[in-house]
Amino acid sequence: MLFNEVMFYVFGVMAVVSAILVVTRRNAVQSAIFLVTALLATAGIFLNLNAEFLFIVQVILYAGGIMVLFVFVIMLVNLDVALHQVQFNRQWFVALIISAVLAAQVVAAIAVSRHTLYTLAPAAPETLEPNTERVAFYLFHTYMLPFELASILLLVAMVGAVVMAKKRV
Amino acid sequence: MNAIIPYIWPVVFALVIVAVLPLIAGYIVLVERKVMADMQVRLGPMRVGPHGLLQPIADAVKLLLKEDIIPESADRLVFWGAPLISVTAAMLALAALPIGPFFQIADLNIGLLYILGVSSLGIFGIVLGGWASNSHYSLLGALRSAAQLVSYETSAGMAIVGALLLAGTLSTRGIVQAQSDIGVWFIFAAPIGFFIYLVASIAETNRAPFDMPEAESELVAGYMTEYSGFRWALYFLAEYTNMVVVASIAATLFLGGWMRPFANTRLFNFLDYFPLLLMLWIAGYCFRRTPKQPVPVQKMFMAAVGLLCLVLAAVFTIPVIAPAGSLLAAAKPGIHGAFWFLFKVAAYIYVFMWLRFTFPRYRFDQLMRLGWQFLVPLSIVNVMSIGISLTLHRQLNWPNLVAFPVGIAITLAAGAYLLATGEKHEQTRVGEDENAEVDSREEETPVNAV
Q1: Interchain CB contact of B161 with A (< 8 Å)
Q2: pTM, two decimal places
């Protein structure tokens, strides 16, 4: 149990610190690198919760797929221009108000529901079913229709992107 | 204390792999140079040690002692970290591979997805290294590499999906077990899937004929142009580790993993003596060459290599001839499993080398067209036809020998169609390009006139 808790804090701190670095770094490529570490740390938390399928999907899709394309594009952008621009928006007091309201909401929610919140006891790892099979069962059985609709939506977006990029179809 | 015990063996295995891998990578380089020399009718490295056997160690020492140059305008932190990302990603992927039934770091139930996911992170090492060098050659090499890896990962993934449908599990151990249960290696059930994976894996490891990212005649050395000394060696290590990883995936998925050929047939039990014969043959060669070595030290070295092969021969044979039920006989699956697995991996890597020295390099647009217009559609058809075969076999009870050829025939037909339309397409494309050139020239003239 102790090992799990330690790992949770390690990954959690990693995720939060890299998320902060993503917005504070001036160099866009370095921001992207820290975004990757933030995503990987989140994947680590999934793994810690015995959700190994979510872990690997997070790694393959976000870190290995989307972020590679991000970095690919960023490398082609002229970074020197970005270095001389103002990094943060000047409307900081608006941001401050919104963040304060959000923080107040979270604190209030926790304070109000502290006594009514209940958590289930964690299941023993041996009793868990392999979650690749579980995910597949729900996607292709219980929620078949929404899943197929979503895939058609993605296909339309893909075809649209190709049509827009191509001069003559 | 009890909490630690399950972790002891995996940690020992992991340490062994991390410690031995650089040595193996070095010797793969030596074998590659020797194979290249053989195909070009020359000797290859012969000076360091008998037959150049110590060349990898000399190379490693040289690389370690070289000056570590970091270009002035480079992004230091990223430049420093990029090779580490490549090596780490490549090595992590080895964790889920079963080298024999006993020697495996972890049998994950997402095994194959884990290998794919972790090794896809290796792209970052290449892309970031190319960017951080702040050099045009490096950047171009990195961009080419990223485009190539992303394109070919798609078809490699789809080829793997085909084999996974047959196995019904993601666990690497389970996949080998499934091949043992069905009684046929998946290369015979899905030969086109294996072909797609072979091509895609060559492209993914950036090897000739797909070595665009580091095409030395165009890009100096691609993304590693600015790297030198130890950091360069790390990239090299990552590349050869990746070769081992893709070869191991192919061996596990398509070539029956640690199983001997005809593992379930008693008639072929004589194949258990194949490791012995192979080792005896190598030992015999070593002893025959011993008197011809020029220096006494080299004679001794050659004889020692021969003796080592004899010892290995004994290790491979004793479990076979030991009485059944004894401790030595119980070690047989582990030892022979490891032998067959490594033998298959070595054969796969040899095919890589063979192709490298046979084919000229592709042009980049040809590479992209091959990937997206031939391999990706073919791999999708392959997955569907394997699905059809499995339905015929499992739902309609067709025998294996009928159901699978039907699927293979469908895929072959699709491949032939793709080839035919691809050629027609290319002919029209050539015409288009000429027109486009004329157009752009016409557009340019007024600008120049102004």
Answers
A1: no
A2: 0.83
